[in-house]
Amino acid sequence: MQVHASEIVHHSIDKQALVDLFLLFLDKDCVLSSVEDMSAYECDGLSAYRRLPWIVVLPNTLDQVSKILRTCHAKGIPIVARGAGTGLSGGALPIGNGVLLSLAKFNRILEIDTDNRMARVEPGVRNLAISEAVQPFGLYYAPDPSSQIACSIGGNVAENAGGVHCLKYGLTVHNILALKVFTINGELLELGSAGLDAPGYDLMALMTGSEGLLGVIVEVTVKLLPIPEMAQVLMASFSSVESAGESVAKIIGAGVIPGGLEMMDNPAIRAAEDFVRVGYPVDAAALVLCELDGSPDQVCDEVERVRDLFQRCGADKIRSAQDETERRQLWAGRKAAFPAVGRIAPDYYCMDGTIPRKRLGEVLKRISDLAVQHELAVANVFHAGDGNLHPLILYDANIPGDIERAEEFGGDILELCVSVGGTITGEHGVGVEKINQMCVQFSVAEIQQFHAVKHAFDPDGLLNPGKAIPTLQRCAEFGAMHVHQGQLAFPDLERF
Ligand SMILES: Cc1cc2nc3c(=O)[nH]c(=O)nc-3n(C[C@H](O)[C@H](O)[C@H](O)COP(=O)(O)OP(=O)(O)OC[C@H]3O[C@@H](n4cnc5c(N)ncnc54)[C@H](O)[C@@H]3O)c2cc1C
Questions:
Q1: Distance from residue 104's CA to the centre of ligand 1 (Å)
Q2: N or C end: fewer C-beta atoms under 10 angstroms in the chain?
Q3: What pTM, to 2 d.p., does this model score?
Q4: Which atom of ligand 1 is nearest to the CA of 172?
Q5: What is the average pLDDT across 402-426?
């Protein structure tokens, strides 16, 4: 992915001079500037894109975070916040002449308030660590990205992360109550509140999913939910992807909101079964996993309704977990699907787009047509209930041209999502990966509004430049490549 000329922040400060400024308030081991020390930070989970940072800083205190921001602001230095670096869209990719600000040392749970069912945590706390800490009180934190063992809550807020349980319990934005955020000039904002409503603009929601472009999150107050009394999972296999997709739409249409509703196609089923051996039907075209949770009466009733819907949609086989061990096994295949696909190809490129549920079958068919056109294989494993697709494009980075073909294929998938009324991201964010497709998703007027919001928080464009929101110049160039029926996108903008 090219850095666009319009997104480069120029400055003239000498590297050592900036290191010396940081050392006025940071210990020596909190400022990294050699290639060896910084190489661990050169990419996030989208490892196809790599760039060495200029300087990495690892503060311990809020005062230090504020001073780092003030220093960068005063000197016009771009700055990228980083949580655990598990992002899949290159959001934490460093800027070559900028500072990478790691929040890794902010890893404490500050308060657990069981009466009010909430916890106050630092941004570097791992997602799963919150549920583990509150489990003795019968509580958990609902959003559960598959990366939850590693990803940080600060990164979850910045990406508005989702997961299997988000269909029923909402995304990150629905599960947080308050944030503390530093602005680019080092001022602390306290957004949201413990109450259900707060006066004024909803800046907490705005900050959620802002991908490090508006501020640096330094504290998160999360909602906690009671652990459901019971959970039961059904697995249905289908001989056509279309009927599997139809069953997903029918379940939601019938008013059942499962705790999880996931789908895998044949290549993903085979890869997962080969890896974890849980008895997945390797000949099926698709399988659907549906988890029902709640009180025992509610779960039993919903299990029967879903079983009936699966049958009516032509499921070949329906298996229900007989006990907790089997339930975990059935999920194990789905949860291991990404690494499992990693075993069948040297590299894979995970896309993330969202479509209306009722178009699942049709879109999956078009993705397999695109695979033929681009001469690359694809495996699909995804949050079907949300219509959130994760096509995994298989390629080999050692074969010249393969990565470019994978990127083009990915771009086509995202544009397909937009064309059926969906979006170019479900949960992984835009980062650098999907920045061009933002030009397809949004009009000039809409992109201008994004820039107006960005300008209100960060007038000099120092926070994570070149990510998430494309400049209109970028769109003009990208638009020039995608002329639709002779209509030139952004005709009033200069081409260069
Ligand atoms: C195997 C695997 C499975 C995944 N599954 C899912 C999934 O099911 N659902 C899902 O939503 N995601 C998933 N992800 C993607 C990723 O884990 C999430 O996007 C996660 O929220 C990123 O958190 P992080 O701490 O790693 O953030 P990073 O990757 O470090 O950063 C992500 C973005 O947030 C910004 N940021 C980080 N911390 C802060 C902060 N404190 N203040 C301001 N900005 C900040 C960064 O600048 C960057 O733009 C998966 C990733 C992997 C590798």
A1: 13
A2: C
A3: 0.92
A4: 11
A5: 92
